[in-house]
Design a protein that fits this description.
Blueprint: H1 2-12, H2 22-25, H3 30-40, E1 46-48, E2 54-56, E3 60-61, E4 76-79, E5 83-84, E6 99-100, E7 104-105, E8 120-121, E9 125-126, H4 136-142, E10 144-145, E11 149-150
């Protein structure tokens, strides 16, 4: 009897097996966790892909927000415009975009490594005023940068 009530309740929520994610429809699960974080950070115009990596069709500006690390469930893929994570207290870039269509800036954080930085930046790359003074060669070892590099 209980199983039948659960089944009927789920049917009342109008789930479409292949079209809707039941966890998301109930407001739970990784997709909802990602959406909540993105909304809290003021990030809009995004797509959460099936593998939970995030594409953003605008600039991402996290400057001055104390985040230290991106949550484990956050992994940006492509940000079409610039990505700013300046003055955040970041100790790691894990979760940063793989590709950035504009500039990338991680100025004034607590970084000792650029591991996790984008592999491609179409604009400039700014990484000065961190715990470690990075070199241009180190940046180019981690990332293909089309614009200038400020270390």
């Amino acid at each position: 009897m209980k199983a039948r009530l659960v089944y009927e309740s789920l049917n009342e929520m109008n789930f479409q097996r292949k079209m809707d994610n039941p966890l998301s429809a109930m407001g739970i699960g990784q997709n909802q966790l990602i959406k909540k974080w993105l909304d809290e950070m003021g990030i809009t115009h995004y797509t959460i892909n099936d593998d939970f990596i995030i594409d953003v069709n605008e600039r991402v500006d996290l400057s001055g927000i104390c985040i230290i690390n991106f949550p484990d469930y956050i992994q940006f893929n492509r940000v079409n415009l610039s990505f700013d994570c300046e003055h955040c207290g970041l100790v790691s870039l894990r979760g940063c975009p793989i590709e950035v269509g504009g500039y990338f800036s991680c100025i004034d954080n607590e970084l000792t490594s650029l591991d996790g930085c984008p592999s491609y930046v179409d604009g400039d790359f700014y990484c000065d005023d961190n715990k470690t003074q990075f070199t241009r060669e180190y940046v180019l070892d981690k990332c293909s940068v089309k614009g200038d590099i400020e270390v």
